[in-house]
Structure formats: structure tokens, C-alpha cells
């Protein structure tokens, strides 16, 4: 049995004092041996964390015990090791950088489509249905749903300016999807704001779709990029295929590598053969760069801990009486 859980989740809910909530949340995660990245904003919470199975279950139970986050939909995967080396809990203007801070998905968003229904839409897709990937280039180049439309964007914050290119699709049924669902909440809401009337979103995103017994990831082509140490995960257990190509030679490869040149650090698919020949670099210039790191065949370089202290950044140290623990 894999002893670690990986949680992917978000919840749009009003947090009146994000700084105070962040501090409390940070302490709770430390005390429960959790690592990962959590973003707090007035509009809610967005996290990818990992830890022991019991610790993660406790976190889910405690977060959902708060009425504000009772409807949080956790995507839970299991792993042989912790997917993160550090814990970061930060306050930001939005829980996903979208340039759409005026939109509240709790007021209006695209209609949810559950994974089993989405599978049927894919299998019986007609010309009046559009499957829209709202993720960035580096994500959808690694994998996407069959026949999905992708956008040429480097970051999700560029999504609003691309909607003009979709105006010809206004009369069609638009079904958006992303990794875990959070981007679709605002993307679909923005489409509705711009006059699109028939807008839907895959509930729980690619990750939930791949986990469902009823879908088993069918018709997702390639791998799904994730924001933890796994980098990319398998989704399709029915009819998988590789769609990404090696950055160096162009052959099909879904083997994601960080360029060995620390100054470049480009994250791209590089096949195993080119990986060894290029010593983990994405180009001849990077191969000869003085900052090139030793290549061990994985293309993954653990970030330096640099004296990492999980309490750093807190406004106060833990000063609670012995026997007590922080609550969410």
C-alpha cells in the first residue's frame, strides 16, 4: 500500500482576514506533517499538498468541518513518497492568477458536467459541441482530451484576451476543462459574461476524470502535467497514446525533463536517448553552459533547501500550551 496521499483541491469562499487565516493554516500543516503549496485569498483557498494518509484525511475532515469550505471537492491520489520537500502557505490577490478578480464563481459559473457525462460527450461529440482546454501551452502540449481546442497562452492570466478568437463558437455548446477544475470556474464564468450562453465545465478536471471508475481516463491523450514532484501523471487506462514530442529530436516522448542548465531550467519533453546524449540539456548552448547540473537520467533536480525552516514567514512562533494543536 502506498503510504502517502496527495491532495488537489480548491474552494471559492469568502475569507475576511487572509493573513490571519494563512498563519493559522500554516501552523496546522506543520503540526500535521503536511507539505506543499497553499494559496489563500479573500476569494478562497487553493492547494496541492501531501503527507501521510492519516494526516491528509485529518486535514480534509477539519477543512470541511468549517462551513465556508464544506463543499470542497478533494482529488486524492496516493504515492510511495511525499510529493513535496517544503511547505509554502501564501496570501495572494487571487487563488489562481486569472486577471479576472471581479468574477465570483459562487454567483455565476459554467454548469458542472460530471466525469461520466463528459465521457459520453466525448464519445458522441457532434459539430455543435466544443471541448475547450483552458490550460497553458506547456500543459496541453503534454496531453489533452481528444479533439479539444487549445489556446496559445503562456499563463492562464492570458485567457481573457484569447476569448475574442472564440467568438465564432458563441452558438455552440462549450465544455471547458483544466487540471483540477479551478481555472474553469472563472474561465466558464468569463465566457458567460462575454455573451456565450451554453457553457459547461468538467467538474474536478482531468485529475478527477482519470480517477473515476466509470471513465478510467478514456480519450485523454498523453499525460497530465501536475504541480508537484511527480511532474506528469498517467490519466488514460483504456486507450492511452503519446502526443508530446522530444524537444531535441522530435520523436514522440512524454518524458518531462528540466534542462540541466540551471539558468535555463526549461521544462520540456526529452526522450531518454537525447537526455543522455545532451547530458540533460535542451540545446547545445545549455549543454556547454557553466551552470549545467550533473545529469542522473531523471531530469529532475530537487530544489536546494537553503536552510529551509517551516516556521519562517509566520508572524508569531508557536506559543500554544503543551498538549494543544492549531485548528483550521
TrEMBL record:
Pfam families of this UniProt entry?
A: Rhodanese, Rhodanese_C, UPF0176_N
The residue ranges of the Rhodanese domain are 125-218
Q: Which reaction does it catalyse?
A: uridine(34) in tRNA + AH2 + O2 = 5-hydroxyuridine(34) in tRNA + A + H2O
SUPFAM superfamilies recorded: Rhodanese/Cell cycle control phosphatase
What SMART domains does this protein map onto? Answer: RHOD
Protein keywords: Oxidoreductase, tRNA processing
> What EC identifiers does the entry list?
1.14.-.-
Q: Which NCBIfam families match?
A: PRK00142.1-3
- What family does the entry list? Belongs to the TrhO family.
- Entry function: Catalyzes oxygen-dependent 5-hydroxyuridine (ho5U) modification at position 34 in tRNAs.
Q: What protein am I looking at?
A: tRNA uridine(34) hydroxylase
What is the protein's species of origin? Answer: Imperialibacter roseus
